[in-house]
Amino acid sequence: MVNDPLRVSGRSSPRWSGRAKQAPTGERPSSLDQTMPSSKPLMTASSGPTPDSVESALRTLETESGGINALAAALRGPLGATFAKAVELIRQAKGRVIVTGLGKSGHMGRKIAATLASTGTPAFFVHAAEAGHGDLGMITADDVIMALSWSGEQPEMKNLVNYSARFAIPMIAVTSNAASSLGQAADIVIELPKAREACPHNLAPTTSTLMQAAIGDALAIALLEGRGFTALEFAHFHPGGKLGAMLKFVRDYMRTGVEIPVKPEGTKMSEAVVEMSAKGLGCVCIVNDAGEAVGIITDGDLRRHMRPDLLTVMVDEIMTKQPKTVPPSMLATEMIEVLNTRKITTLLVTEANKVVGIVHLHDLLRAGVA
């Protein structure tokens, strides 16, 4: 049985439609009966013998980059105004972004929903086919629907589109055909340029899905930047993994109390070396009577000042004055940048000029931050 194309009542035409120019490589054939394109896209120039698999990979990347370039060019044209309308619609929504799709478009929709949610725009994915079996109850009148369909003619989308029209839920269509049933039913149409698929038969969704993912990323980042979403806010949504570790604070990794190697001014180097060895961090912090850091002695300082009377002189003569310090509230990512820039392995942590902790690069490596 041949499925009927998606036809809905309620909305007659989109209020905002940004049509992208077609890429010069031509459109995707609508059926296998039409003349198939060449089974081999243009070859990539090579300076020497290259395995066939690498040649294939290069052709794929070249073809897909053409799609991204076509999308960028479209955004510089009429599609840009439509994109801005979509961003504003989502920004003004009181509810969430409901991303929907089927097949490969559905997989891209799940990714887009996850990216939106992790960057401060509440969103989740509803499978278009499941929507008609009860999942429409997940969608409220305060939400915005973002429907992905390359052709815009998937009949499984009909129930969701009708629901959108019935309850006046605004809908953004991401499709390559603004004149499609989905495009005609949507409030805003982000029309993606028709670009050649990387598949040699121009059939398997490759370039098209990459463009869907890219426009989703573009929406997420535009919304992120528009609301001033910070790294600290990102940390609330992403406490796990390496990203979560990098978004913790210096206070989460610093050693405190008796673990800090510290000696007062006027101490003999022999005592400072014992303290360095006991704490095992390859350094000792030198403080004044108020507990403020006035210097630091590292293994490197010992090597640079190696001499017969080294253990009998005072730390004041050997220490590096005005050591670099960081506050406990600094992000771990910023702390790593300080370590890398200054090419050091240890940082003193101070609060109100007093030493409250110390961080070593090895601690960050063990935590998976560095």
TrEMBL record:
One Pfam family it belongs to: SIS
Gene3D superfamilies (UniProt xref): CBS-domain, Glucose-6-phosphate isomerase like protein, domain 1
GO molecular function: arabinose-5-phosphate isomerase activity; carbohydrate derivative binding; metal ion binding
Domain SIS: 86-229
Keywords, comma-separated and alphabetical: CBS domain, Isomerase, Metal-binding, Repeat, Zinc
Domain CBS per the UniProt entry, residue ranges: 254-313, 319-370
Site residues, Catalytically relevant: K104, E156, E197, H238
Residues annotated as transmembrane: none
SUPFAM superfamilies: SIS domain
Annotated Zn(2+) binding sites: H127
Segments for region (Disordered): 1-55
Top-level taxonomic group: Bacteria
Swiss-Prot/TrEMBL GO biological process terms: carbohydrate derivative metabolic process; carbohydrate metabolic process
Keyword Isomerase found: yes
Protein family (similarity comment): Belongs to the SIS family. GutQ/KpsF subfamily.
NCBIfam families: kpsF
Name the record gives this protein: KpsF/GutQ family sugar-phosphate isomerase
